[in-house]
Amino acid sequence: NAGVMQNPRHLVRRRGQEARLRCSPMKGHSHVYWYRQLPEEGLKFMVYLQKENIIDESGMPKERFSAEFPKEGPSILRIQQVVRGDSAAYFCASSPVSGSRTDTQYFGPGTRLTVL
Amino acid sequence: DQQVKQNSPSLSVQEGRISILNCDYTNSMFDYFLWYKKYPAEGPTFLISISSIKDKNEDGRFTVFLNKSAKHLSLHIVPSQPGDSAVYFCAAGPNEKLTFGTGTRLTIIP
Q1: Which long-range contacts (CB under 8 A, 24 or more apart) does A43-48 make?
Q2: Mean per-residue pLDDT for B20-47?
Q3: Out of A30, B40, B46, B103, which could bridge B87 as a Cys pair, Cβ 3.0 to 4.6 Å?
Q4: Which of B34, B43, B102 lies closest to A42 in CB terms?
Q5: pLDDT higher than threshold 60 for residue A101
Q6: How many residue contacts between A and B have a Cβ separation below 8 Å?
Q7: Are residues B52 and B65 in contact, defined by beta-carbon separation less than 8 angstroms?
Q8: Nearest to B86 by CA among B8, B10, B27
Q9: What whole-number distance in Å separates Cα of residue A111 and Cα of residue B90?
Q10: What is the mean pLDDT of chain B?
Q11: What pLDDT digit, counting tens, does each position of A26-56 carry?
């Protein structure tokens, strides 16, 4: 049973470009979460999605950031017009279809975004 | 504001001894707590969790203790093994939106 998959593992962008980060949840999981980890900090919640629905995006910056989880295909975290402060590790997690708040979140290996 | 705090950035423990990692929280709405372990260049791996209706949960070498009145939880690892060397994060939530601490780097000395 494959775990949560994220790609790319490393992404380098110049200021002003767009970054697209992909996350495929574990088989049987329909809940996806995105977190960001800045250097020397803990993971910060960004957004919680179910298939075709954004459930909670209270941790998302108001501008330039968007997320989706389509009916088919991976979840995408999109950052437009990246700035140096967006450099971080972005982690995706998934949990089972039951949606219980105590369901364990299983994390992917992360995408390390570097903005030059 | 840091609602989940891990005040020890690092900890070194002799192999075979007990490792105790601590975590404090400030949000009274938190009622579900988890510990994750993270190796470099990997995502966090779930270790153990506890809900606020309990004060202890045990899984093999790992035990988590919760003191609700002090808003404090701890993770005990015994006996400590070299493979336990990693960064440990505590996380908490009233729901799926987890709040993480900044982590404690545990080093097990052979």
Answers
A1: A43/A91, A43/B44, A43/B89, A43/B91, A43/B98, A43/B100, A44/B100, A45/B97, A45/B98, A45/B99, A46/A77, A47/A77, A48/B96, A48/B97
A2: 94
A3: B103
A4: B102
A5: no
A6: 64
A7: no
A8: B10
A9: 21
A10: 94
A11: 988 889 999 999 987 889 999 999 988 999 9
Please say whether the beta carbons of A92 and A113 come within 8 A: no
Q: Is the pLDDT of residue A91 over 80?
A: yes
Distance in Å, alpha carbon of B67 to nearest chain A alpha carbon: 19
DSSP class of residue B107 equals E
B9-35 exposure pattern, b = at least 16 Cβ within 10 A, e = fewer: eeeebeeeeebbbbbbbeeeebbbbbb
B51 beta partners: B32
Instruction: Measure in Å the smallest separation between the Cα of A27 and chain B Cα atoms.
Output: 17
